[in-house]
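Course assignment 3, question 2. Fill in each field.
Student: A.L.
Task: Predict the tertiary structure for the chain below.
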Amino acid sequence: MTSVSEMRRGVLYGVAAYVLWGLFPLYWPLLKPAGSIEILAHRMIWSLAAVGVILAARRHWRWIKTLKAGRVALLALAATVITVNWGTYIYAVNSGHTIEAALGYFINPLVSVLLGVLVLRERLTPWQWAAVGTGTAAVVVLAIDYGRPPWIALILAGSFGTYGLLKKFAATPSAESLTVETAVLLLPALAYAIFQPHPTFTGHGVPHMVLLAGAGVVTAVPLLLFNSSATRVPLTVIGMLQYLAPVLQFLIGLVVQHEAMPASRWIGFLLVWVALVLLSADAVRTARKSRRANAEPEPVAV
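Answer field:
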C-alpha cells in the first residue's frame, strides 16, 4: 500500500509534469525561425539523446534484451502516431491556434472512452454516455463557430488517444518506450534536420542551438515526472491532474497570445467542460464503489 508521504510525492510529481506540459506553448515560439517540421525533427533527435543520458546514468539497459518483435512493432506504430501529434501541436502553437490545441487535450478523455468502446469492447455507464453526447454537441457548436470542424483539436485528441491505446498494448515504461519511439524515427529526423533547404540550427547563434537542443530535455523531463507520479497515485488522481495542462494552454492562448474567443466559442468550450465534469464524477463514483467493495470483509465459512 502506498504511504501518505509517497502519495504526496506522487501528486507533486504529477502536478509538475502537467504544469510543464501546460507551459509548452511558451517554449515552441522561442524556436522560430525554425519551422514546425524542423522543430519536430530536433525534438525527436534530442529527446533520444536526453533519455539515453538518463538511462545511462541509471545503467538501465537490460530491458533491451527483453524486447520482442511484436512490442517493437507496436512502439514503431506509436512513434508514427505521436509524430503526427507532436507536429500538429507545434504547428498549432506557432500559427496562433493554441486555444484549439488546448481543446484537443480537453476532449482527449472523451476520445479515450470511445476507443475503449470501439477497440476494447468496454461498456459505457449512463454518465459516460452523457459525457460523450455533450462532447459531441460541443464539437458541433465549435464547428459552426469556426466555420469548419476543429481539425487541429480532433487530430490532437485522436492521435493522442490512439497513442495511449498502443502504449497500453505495448506495456513498456515511459523512458524505455520513448527511447524506442525516437530511435525508430531518428534517421528520418536527422535527414530532415541536415538536408532541408533552409536549416536554422547553425545559422542563428548559440542561444537558438541551445533552445532547439533543449526540446529533448523539455520532452523527457515531464515524461519521467509523470512516470514517477503514476507509480505512486491512483488513476483517478492522475485523471484529475491531466486537466492542468489544457487549462494552462487555454489560459496562455487567451491571456498571453490574445487569441479570439467569441461568445459562440465560449459556449462550445463550456459544453466540453460540462462533459469532463460528468466523466470525472463518474470516475470518482466508480473508484469509491470499488474501494467500498474491496473493504467489505470476506464471508466466514461455518
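Instructor remarks: The first helix runs from residue 4 to 22. The CA atoms of residues 94 and 121 lie 38 Å apart.
Grade: pending
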